[in-house]
């Protein structure tokens, strides 16, 4: 299967699990989908797990921090490609949406909102 290099605006482009039990979720989804987990350190006792399938990144997971747990239960984040995260955040606010955090760069993966 060819690797997707770029997503068209409006397409889902990433999925990420926010969980309270990263180890069990990693084991469950690895066995369910055949994903290979790769952990990346994020700080003391924290890591970001990238799930790989056929030599490509398929999804990810992380342990929710207390402030996030106070706002939402464990969940899958669905990311949608846009031309400009800054412009999209601005338009969302103008239309009455609540921008919880401003767009930010994620290493070489582009800007995220």
Plain-language structure description:
The chain has helices at residues 22-33, 66-69, 85-94; strands at 12-19, 36-43, 46-53, 56-63, 75-80, 104-105, 111-112. The chain has 113 residues and is an alpha+beta fold. It folds into 2 domains: 1-81, Roll (2,3-Dihydroxybiphenyl 1,2-Dioxygenase, domain 1); 86-113, no CATH class. The strands form 2 sheets. It has a 5-stranded mixed beta sheet with strand order 2-3-4-1-5, with helices on one face. The radius of gyration is 15 Å and the shape is globular. The model has no long low-confidence stretch (mean pLDDT 89).
- Count up the domains: 2
Spatial strand sequence of the major β-sheet = 2-3-4-1-5
Sheet/helix structural class: alpha+beta
Instruction: Work out the helix count.
Output: 3
The second-level CATH architecture of the largest domain is: Roll
- CATH topology of the largest domain: the name is 2,3-Dihydroxybiphenyl 1,2-Dioxygenase, domain 1
Encode the helix/strand succession as letters: EHEEEHEHEE
What is the molecular shape? globular
What integer value in Å does the Rg equal?
A: 15 Å
CATH superfamily of the largest domain: 2,3-Dihydroxybiphenyl 1,2-Dioxygenase, domain 1
Determine the fraction of residues in helical runs and give it as a percent range. 10-25%
Average residue-wise pLDDT: 89
Low-confidence segments, ≥5 residues, pLDDT <50? none
What is the CA-CA span between the terminal residues? 29 Å
């Amino acid at each position: 299967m060819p690797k997707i290099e770029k997503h068209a605006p409006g397409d889902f482009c990433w999925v990420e699990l926010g969980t309270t039990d990263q180890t069990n979720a990693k084991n469950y989804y690895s066995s369910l989908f055949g994903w290979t987990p790769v952990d990346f350190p994020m700080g003391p006792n924290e890591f970001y797990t990238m799930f790989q399938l056929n030599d490509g990144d398929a999804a990810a997971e992380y342990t929710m921090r207390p402030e996030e747990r106070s706002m939402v239960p464990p969940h899958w984040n669905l990311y949608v490609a846009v031309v400009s995260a800054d412009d999209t955040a601005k338009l969302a606010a103008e239309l009455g949406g609540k921008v919880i955090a401003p767009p930010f760069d994620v290493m070489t993966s582009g800007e995220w909102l």
